[in-house]
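Worked example 3. Consider a protein that binds NAP.
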Amino acid sequence: MHEERTDKPVALVTGAAKGIGAACCLALAREGFRLGIHYRRSMEEAEELLREVQDGFLLRADLADPDQIDDMVRRVSAEAGRVDVLVNNAGMSINQTMMQMKIDQFDTQRTILKGTWYLVKRILRTFMLRQSSGRIINISSVVAHTGHAGQVAYTMEKAGVDALTKSVAQELGDRGILVNSVAPGFIQTDMTADIPDQVREGISEKIPLGRMGRPEEVADVVRFLASRGSYIQGSVIHVNGGLYSG
Ligand SMILES: NC(=O)c1ccc[n+]([C@@H]2O[C@H](COP(=O)([O-])OP(=O)(O)OC[C@H]3O[C@@H](n4cnc5c(N)ncnc54)[C@H](OP(=O)(O)O)[C@@H]3O)[C@@H](O)[C@H]2O)c1
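Given these inputs, the predicted complex is written out as structure tokens:
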């Protein structure tokens, strides 16, 4: 489906069909953005979200495959011709201890970091550097900072996301492009749906606000970084109910 181009700013959100990504799309749509809704498998949810945000377009790609990322960037060019905000939200976690995890599982875990790195490079080159403006918001995680038993590779990947934020922010400070991370704590989404009730209660007891967060509470911060926050650069903003403050 080809949408007509408008003067609206364009936000591209990866892994947007559900959870934190979908909440980001809804918040950014309310802020006046046209949405590039990226998904991999969750096509029905992505289509439903497009109906809700009204002004946007769908993009399917597996971020593990650079060719699919190239194709996605070409489609964004054709659909919108610009990207003002990129939210790197797609993610997955293999929940295995150091001793359980096999080396090929480690390679699977790190595909999102590599894909994110490549997508940032492509979006910068194709749009933001030419525009001399743009905002990149990377979704990392509190566990990149606290560590987390049973998620060694995931914590390494998310620490890599924050390192990407800090280094690219330093490279692009004088190019009008802001790069920041949002590090959620424990948020109620499909990613945390399988946590047994007893473990969930244990987690909530450790959180000063006494509960897990909602996707909308992360999206609120993403919306702020996308539309205001003009003097925030290379930062990691923690959204975790007080679990960790940096
Ligand atoms: N929930 C939490 O407690 C929590 C805490 C800290 C950080 N985070 C981070 O927040 C982000 C959003 O997570 P969520 O909780 O909203 O989980 P979610 O509902 O599982 O969403 C993650 C999305 O990432 C997409 N994705 C996964 N692998 C992909 C790949 N190879 N290529 C393209 N897309 C891929 C999936 O798309 P499809 O469904 O279309 O395949 C999925 O919709 C993730 O980066 C996660 O690590 C979550």
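Take a moment to read the result before moving on. The chain has a mean pLDDT of 96. The radius of gyration is 17 Å.
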